[in-house]
Amino acid sequence: MNQRNLRYITLSFLLAGIGIPAQNPVIQTHFTPDPAPMVYKGKMYIYTGDDQPGFDFYTMTRWRVYSTEDMVNYTDHGSPISLESFSWARDRAWAAQCIERNGKFYWYICAQTVDNNMAIGVAVSDSPTGPFKDALGKPLISTGTWDNIDPTVFIDDDGQAYLYWGNSKLFYVKLNKNMTSYQGKITEIPQSVEAFGGLRRPGKSDEVLQKQEKFDDVYVEGPWLYKRNNQYYMMYAGMTGRTECLSYSTSPSPTGPWKYQGKIMTDQPINSFTNHGGIIDFKGKSYLFYHTGLLPAGGSYGRSTAVEEFRYNADGTIPKITMTKEGVSPAGTLNPYQRTEAETMAWSEKCSTSESRKTGVYVSDARAGGYIKVRSVDFEKGASTFSASVAAGIDGGILEVHLDDVKGPKIAEIEIPRTGGWEEFKILTSKISESVSGVHDVYFVFQGKNITAGRKLFNFDYWNFQKK
After folding, report:
1. What InterPro entries does UniProt report for this protein, alphabetically (predicted)?
2. Are residues 159 and 246 in the same domain?
3. Burial of 381 (0-12, 13-18, 19+ CB in 10 A)
4. Which of 94, 96, 242, 293 is the most exposed, having the fewest neighbouring CB atoms within 10 Å of its CB?
5. How many domains does the chain have?
């Protein structure tokens, strides 16, 4: 057995646990590095990168969007923008962040230019899930260096917007109200032990500096700026030995001076050299989004979004936050009596998601023994039937509905015939075989009937139950 297969089996075991449901990473169908959360009209949107599997570098060509209303079930909205969306971009679709202003959504991205430097651009949309288009047709920030990565954007209470970014150095500009231009010059934030726990010196690595000069930390990349109780917080990827950590500084002003406050997440078995996060409040609770390499076949170049809930200390400082596989508790329930996209998931195995102009985003490549878990589904007083929109080019697939566990009570089953093609979706219905009411986790389990193990069974677009 080679090390890759051993790692896959070990991590699968760790994530599955024994009697403890896994929730982190929150997306299993794709690698989703560099999460950037945004709250809009009662939903949490997560904007991520897209690590391509099978490469030994940060091979990224597009960005992705997910949303949740309850912090446990995440809907895949596909990839509204990619390198192709920007005529000036050629490679390295790295970290990004989206923000809303006056009903418009501005997605700040970084990418490698045709001149072989990194630059920051901005795409705009009327919807948080797109379609987005390049707002300028050129970079917003392009200074001919590789420092122009990891943009973070913040709008203060007085309406002034700020764009921060930087790798090894930290820069900012004041954005104009149109969010696609800036005023004044680019300002570099001075780095010091007092501001960021350490500082860089030419010709010395962060690891050497920490050992020789005993720096507690150092600013590396991935800034995240926000405000709480008239205090400004700058979270960033710091450095512990040879691994990035999440650290933060605070300031009475959005432009500093910054005061180093310590590490938020460090010495965690994230299985990834980098970490990149965002902190946000939602429905009265505070959350830290970050990434790990803990999905099977993941690692430093296959990173996935995870989330933890936390409470600020009484003095406004951020406590040390421990990575968990359990993640967070539901912040609400899901209504099963309305159309729910099949790509709304709390956990999944042996399936993926795809997107097309005809269908949009849908669950694809469902295989025997796989499943989709949806948490905290409120059946209220009871359901009578279950309907699913499915497609299959070959028959033999079965969609089972179980409660509370993959092997829990089976309440419905649909045998899926050939529908005329893998994107010819048909609505099929099954009666509920057992009484169901109240709040349950629901498992949509994929089974095959007299077929070769491992073959693709069907695609799955959406589902809903009907009340009694």
Report:
1. CBM6, Cellulose-bd_IV, Galactose-bd-like_sf, Glyco_hydro_43, Glyco_hydro_beta-prop_sf, Glycosyl_Hydrlase_43_Enz
2. yes
3. exposed
4. 242
5. 2
As given in the structure block, the two tokens for residue 323 are: 């990575």
- Is the domain of 256 the same as that of 402? no
CATH of residue 382's domain is: 2.60.120.260
Question: How far, in Å, CA of 203 to CA of 108, rounded?
Answer: 31
> Taking the model in full, what pTM does it have?
0.93
Tokens of 238: 């710091």
Between CA 28 and CA 33, with CA 29 as vertex, the angle to 5 degrees is 70
**Taking a C-beta distance cutoff of 8 angstroms, is the pair 273, 300 a contact?**
yes
Whole-number Å distance between alpha carbons of 436 and 23: 24
Where do we find the tokens 């497609």?
391
Q: Is the dihedral of CA 11, 13, 17, 22 positive or negative?
A: positive
Do the domain assignments include residue 382? yes
- On whether both 360 and 284 belong to a single domain, the answer is no
Residue 227 lies in a domain: yes
How does pLDDT run across 122-133, given as a tens digit for each residue?
999 999 999 999
Q: What is the CATH number of the domain that holds 206?
A: 2.115.10.20
Range of the domain at 68: 24-310
> Distance between CA atoms of 414 and 235, rounded to whole angstroms?
48
Question: pLDDT tens across 37-91, in order?
Answer: 999 999 999 999 999 988 889 989 999 999 999 999 999 999 999 999 999 999 9
Burial class (CB in 10 A: 0-12, 13-18, 19+), 111: buried
Calculated CA dihedral for residues 98, 142, 179, 126, nearest 10 degrees: -50
